[in-house]
Amino acid sequence: MEQVEVFKALANESRLKILQWMKEPDKHFGDCPTGGARGRKVCVTEIQSKLGLSQSTASQYLAILQDAGLVVARREGQWTFYERNEEALKELGDFLKKDL
Known about the structure:
It is built from 6 helices and 3 strands; from the N terminus they run αααβααββα. By secondary structure, the chain is α+β, with helices and mostly antiparallel strands. Strands 1-3-2 form a 3-stranded antiparallel β-sheet. Strand 2 and strand 3 (79-84) form a beta hairpin. The two termini are 15 Å apart.
């Protein structure tokens, strides 16, 4: 994990909110748009709607989080779903505890 990229990704309030909401997707988002089980996945259109931003901006924020390794994208038909990378977040927590 590249810590500088992670901290850059977290330095934006909207991106930080996305990660916080994705921790409990059932609490922060409506029904899964595919009608299937949600699990930990969140569709980009759900995030865009909750942020109140354009889809391109929401997609850009998610790409930054993905490039930093904080979220993972999965394609299901016409939908792209994102979920938190819990292992990377654990590594970040360990880094903060141990090295800072």
